[in-house]
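User: Please predict structures.

Assistant: First:
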Amino acid sequence: MADGEVSGFGSASKTQLENKLRSVLSSRKLLSKAGDSRFVLAAHLTVLEKEVLGTAPTKIAIRLQVNVAAGDGMTGTCYASNELTVKGVGQTEQAALTSAIRSISPSDKRVGMMLDEAVERIIGYYNEQGPSIISNAVMLAGQEKYEQAIYELSLIPMECTAYEAAQEAVQQVYVQYINREAGKALGKAKAQWAGNPTAENAETVMAMLMEIDPSADNYAEVEAFMSDVEKHVTKENAQKRADALAREKAERDLERERMQIGLEREKAQMAAIESIADAYAESLPDVVYYVDWW
């Protein structure tokens, strides 16, 4: 997040400075994977000096103090901070400000040292809070709030002592999530078929069934229902359609066999878990940070 006590510091400058902060985090692989983190990197601009240069055309030179800080934005606790001085020149005050912000280097050692200190404290936070985060996630899963549980567990960094336990928990929650979604999808497909058991509707029903994860507990029932649908289609002499459905099922079976290979399945599960966490994060309201001013 970014703000400043600078003339001309509007939404465009704010966006530019926030993008610069994201570049800093990205260069150190510290960007949050799932939505807004409670931890924030913030910057505040203050004018140290402004001068109108006697050039043709006239230009404005500006020197800014950039206070950069990182901490817990939800509690307002600053973990580490540092100050930078940057300069910019432009034909307008806005152009000079843009030039100054552009000169902030993501690889600045002072920012790096500040972030290292902040990261240590963030890891300390998760080392301390990890067990309670996991316990809360298990409770959420018991309430069938699987997406929220997966999101909470996914926030625990691998550098933390609770990471392995969080990964075990997220795998268990993911299995519960799969089983719930599979039950819902099968029920929906059966209702769709019962309302219109025709060859034309078979494609829609089979597409719904194809979305069910083969590792779901009810997959044997899913396959049995697929066979019933295929038989009905064949009885209606829609052989081409039946063949197409059979090919889709064969492809799905082949995919299922491939997914039984441990590494491939683990990669797919981790991608699915990350996708669920990202989707849940997208549904959350924007985090309100308390940074006054570190």
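Second:
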Amino acid sequence: MNIGAIFDWDGVVVNSEKAHLKSWEMLAEAHGHTIPANFMADTFGKRNLEIIPNILKWTDDMKLVAEMSDEKEEYYRKIVADEGLPLVDGIEKFLQSLQSAGIPCAIGSSTPRKNLEQALDKLDFGKYFVASATMEDVSRGKPAPDVFLCASEKIGVQPRRCIVFEDSEAGIDAGISAKMKTVAVSTTFPSDFWESRIKGFPDIIIEDFIPMDASIIEGIWKKK
């Protein structure tokens, strides 16, 4: 079957929430701000260029927003270099299964490319992904479908034949808008959150990738 698999990065391939929160806290302290409650849940899947002026409301000077965004990501890369990144359970075995089945995999993420390249090198995961689309490749972040459409184009698979793996609501909505199949990974939000969504369900809800293999993905198209 001509199928493509597109993975968000943070919260899907790697459990990076603690590293991201720590880097945001470092940025806040450096600029005399504080991080609000539920910050990570409210911002997962969104870009810094939207988070800083629209959610944190620290400044609407876009030059300063860009500088603060770069500073935050420098903190993040230093944390990753020092502490590493834990993987989501079962992800490497699942990627190996997709590779063996000839299903091309890509990354579609709001993360900066420098962060992604650092992590892929550190984890030796570049061998599993034939392409990646990051925040630098698109002008609109999730829930706009742009980053996933860019990823599908890079792997040469039509959007309707792609499946997206996401942990954020903005990401699932982006996948649905792209007319792709969607899998919600319950690393950021619990399963009952996805089951109660009013906007529409993802095709599958999983806790992690331990029970997953290529045959399950191929089967999604056979159900409908």
